[in-house]
C-alpha cells in the first residue's frame, strides 16, 4: 500500500507537483527522475509525505475548479478562487470622497461592508460599533439574509452580551479586508485592475476613520459603545481616542494599545512564510494561482499563537502517541512526517483549508502589518502627526490614580509614554479584559493598558483578568465570563 | 531611487527569481509580464520587497559558488552547499555493528563524531558526557584542533561549570545530525548515495544508544555525569534511564521528560514550512539546490520560541518605530514589508543566513521529530517496548516524596504516569533547572519533571528555577546562574 501510493505520486502528473506547487521546472523534473532512479537501486522504498501532498492536492482542486468554471461562458475571465460571501448577505456603503491615510496619500474612494442587528432607536443613541479581529468578516452573527452562524454568534442577540433588545449593533469588514470592504483584492478605479501590493499601507486609525465615514452616512453622531477583541480592541481604543466626544464607552478584550515585539515577531513569521510562496508573486496573483500553501502555513503559525500550552496539554496530552499498530508494520520506512499526532489534525483542519482558499493573502499581509504598527505611546503618535478629532478635554473626575488603584510598584517600561498617549481617553469609561493564558496579547499588556489609562487620569477603568486555558481564543469561546463582563459594563 | 531599484529587479534576470527561488516557470514569466504591463498602465509604481528579494539573492550566491567550484576539477561532482566542519577538527568512531532503533530496523553501521576536553583519569571515572541541542555540533568549546568558540564556550574549561582540571568532557554530534555523525545527508552504504528521507526515523533513545557505543569503544564503563540542555536534557534523562548503573549524576537544564503539545506544534510549523519549499523535493535535494529558503523561515520561527516576550520588549520596545523621514518621502508607495523594524533585523541575522546554508534540512526534520516523539510516561515506554539496561532497582533512600517536598497540591495531568515511567531514575542524583521565561520548555514542565522524579522515589532531586528575561536561550547565556548550579551539583 505504501508502495502503490508512492507509485501513484510519481505516475500521476498533477500529483507529482508538490510543496509550493507550481508547474515543475525542468530542474525539478530532473530531481524527480533522480529520485526514481534512486529507488530502483535502493534497498529502501521512497517515503511518502501526506502533509506535503496536501498542498499539491489543493492546487489540483483549484485547477480543476478553474477548468470547470471556464467551460461556463458566464464565468469567464480571471476569477480569484477564494469566494467572497454573497454580496446580498451584507450592506455596502460606497464613500466617494478621499479617505485620509496615516502612512500614505488619501484613498480616493472606498466601499465598506457592514451588517446590523437589533433596531436603531429614534434618537439614534443605542448604537454599538463592533470591531473585528484580523480575518473576520462583518458576519458577527446570523441574520435573516445569512443564516450561517457568525464569528460571535453567542454574544449577539436578545439577552446576550450585546443585547439586541436594547442595542443596535453594527459590524463592518475592516479596510484592507476581502469581504466587501475595499482592500488589496479590490479593483483600483485608476487601473481597473486589483490594487494588489500597490494598495497603500493602512493603519488601525485608518480602519476606524473608514468606519466613522459609514456612521456619518447613517446619521449616527454618537455611539453608545465601541466594542472589540484582539485587533478589534485596538480599533476600539483608537476609536475612543480619535473621537472621544462621539463614543460613550469603550470595550477592549485581549487587545493592546502598543503591539509587543513578540507578537510582531509572530506576525512577521507568518508574512514571511506567505510571501515566500512563489504563487504570491509579489502580490500580483489575481490572474494566477493564489498562494494557498503559504497562506495555509501562515495560518498554522497563527493557530499556535491563539491557544495556550495548558489547554493543548489537556486536549492532546494523552493523544501524543507512538506509532499505531498499522504504522509499525511498515515502521522501517515511515518518515518523520508520517507519524501522525492528533495535534497535526488540529493544525491542518478543514477550517484551515477553507481559510486558505477563501481569504485573500494580501489582506492578511496588510492587516497584520497594521497591527504591528499600532502604538499609542505619545512619541509614536506625535511622529505620525496623529491627533484626536477634538482637543483633549481635562479629566472630569480625577487626574491621578485612585486610592484603590495606586500607581504600579513595578511599572512596565513604556508606561509613562503610553499614559501620555492615552490622555484623550481619560474621560471615557473603559472595560479592559485580559486572559492569563494568552500568549499573543499577554496579560502583562492588559495590566499595562489598565495602568496607563489610570495614570492618564481615567478613573472609570474596569479591569478583569480571566483564568482558564483557552488563551487568546477565550474571547471567542468564553461566553459566560467574557459576555458577562461586557453585559455588566454596558448597563 | 525606489523606481530604479524596481527596474533593476525586473531587468536583472537572476534577481527576478524570487520567493522560493527556483528558475521561473513559463507561468511565472507570464505573471511577471502581467506585472510589468500593469505598471505601464498604473498610476502607482510597483513596490519592492527586500525580505523576499533576500531569498533570491541567496539562491544566486549558491549558484555562483557552484559555478566557481565546478571550474575547479578537484571540486567536481555534486557537493552540498552546506559546509561541514573540517573532519580534522573532531574525532570519528566508526561502529560497524548494527545499532538497534526504536522505530525501525537496526542501522547496519554508523559514524559518530566527538570532541573532548580535559584529561581522562587512569581509572576512567571522571567522564562527563555532554549532550547537544537540536542543531549543535560536537564543538562545544574551542580546542587545539579548532580554535573557533564552541556553543558552550564559557561553560567548559579550567574552573568553569564543567571544570576540565577535574573532568574529561566528551561531546558528540547526535545521530541524525550533519556534523560528522551519520544522518540523512550521509552516504547509505547500500546505495552509495545519501540516505535522504530513506533514513530511518530515530528517537532520543537511539541517539543515546549511539553515544554509549562510543563510550564502550573508549573503554568508559561509568560516567561521572550526563549533562544536557534543551534536547540535550532529553538525552541526559534518557541516558540515566537506559543505563542507570553507568551514570553517576544527571543534569537536565530547560528540558522535559515529555514533549508538550505546544512545543510539538512549534516544531511542526517549522517542518511544514521547510518541507513546503520545492527545493526540499521530498528530501532528495543533495544533487540539486538545498531548501535554503524553507530552512531560513523555519529558523525564524524557532528563534521566536527561543527568547521571551519581556526580553524583546526591553530590547526592541523603543525601536519599534513608524516610518523614518527618508521612508516618508515615498510613503505613498511603501509596501508593508518595507517598514523596517529592528526586530526584523534580529530575525534575519547573518547567523540565520549561515545556518540555512550550513545546516542540513533533513537533519532538522529528523531530529526535531525525535524531540516530538520523546515521552517518558510509562504507557508510552511500554508501547515502544523500551526498558532500561538493567531491572529497576528498589529506591535506596525513600520511596515517597520527602517532607520538604510533599506531593504537589495541583499535580500536572500526566504526573502519575510520568512518575511510573521515571522509576529507573529513582536512585540517580538529578539536577533539574528551569527558566520562568522559557516558552518552549515552560517552567511548568520543569516542575512536573522534578515532582515526577520525587514521586518516583528519587530523594536526591536538586531543583532550581531561574528568573531573568532570556527565555529558553538562558542555558547558552547565563553562565553565572546556570554554570553555578551545575558546578555546585557536580561537586
TrEMBL record, chains A, B:
<comment type="similarity">
    <text>Belongs to the AB hydrolase superfamily. MetX family.</text>
</comment>
<dbReference type="InterPro" id="IPR008220">
    <property type="entry name" value="HAT_MetX-like"/>
</dbReference>
<feature type="active site">
    <location>
        <position position="438"/>
    </location>
</feature>
<dbReference type="GO" id="GO:0004414">
    <property type="term" value="F:homoserine O-acetyltransferase activity"/>
</dbReference>
<feature type="active site">
    <location>
        <position position="472"/>
    </location>
</feature>
<dbReference type="GO" id="GO:0009092">
    <property type="term" value="P:homoserine metabolic process"/>
</dbReference>
<protein>
    <submittedName>
        <fullName>Alpha/Beta hydrolase protein</fullName>
    </submittedName>
</protein>
<dbReference type="InterPro" id="IPR000073">
    <property type="entry name" value="AB_hydrolase_1"/>
</dbReference>
<dbReference type="GO" id="GO:0006535">
    <property type="term" value="P:cysteine biosynthetic process from serine"/>
</dbReference>
<dbReference type="Pfam" id="PF00561">
    <property type="entry name" value="Abhydrolase_1"/>
</dbReference>
<feature type="compositionally biased region" description="Low complexity">
    <location>
        <begin position="68"/>
        <end position="77"/>
    </location>
</feature>
<dbReference type="GO" id="GO:0016787">
    <property type="term" value="F:hydrolase activity"/>
</dbReference>
<feature type="domain" description="AB hydrolase-1">
    <location>
        <begin position="127"/>
        <end position="452"/>
    </location>
</feature>
<feature type="region of interest" description="Disordered">
    <location>
        <begin position="392"/>
        <end position="411"/>
    </location>
</feature>
<dbReference type="GO" id="GO:0009086">
    <property type="term" value="P:methionine biosynthetic process"/>
</dbReference>
<dbReference type="GO" id="GO:0009001">
    <property type="term" value="F:serine O-acetyltransferase activity"/>
</dbReference>
<feature type="active site" description="Nucleophile">
    <location>
        <position position="230"/>
    </location>
</feature>
<feature type="region of interest" description="Disordered">
    <location>
        <begin position="66"/>
        <end position="91"/>
    </location>
</feature>
<dbReference type="GO" id="GO:0005739">
    <property type="term" value="C:mitochondrion"/>
</dbReference>
<keyword id="KW-0378">Hydrolase</keyword>
<dbReference type="InterPro" id="IPR029058">
    <property type="entry name" value="AB_hydrolase_fold"/>
</dbReference>
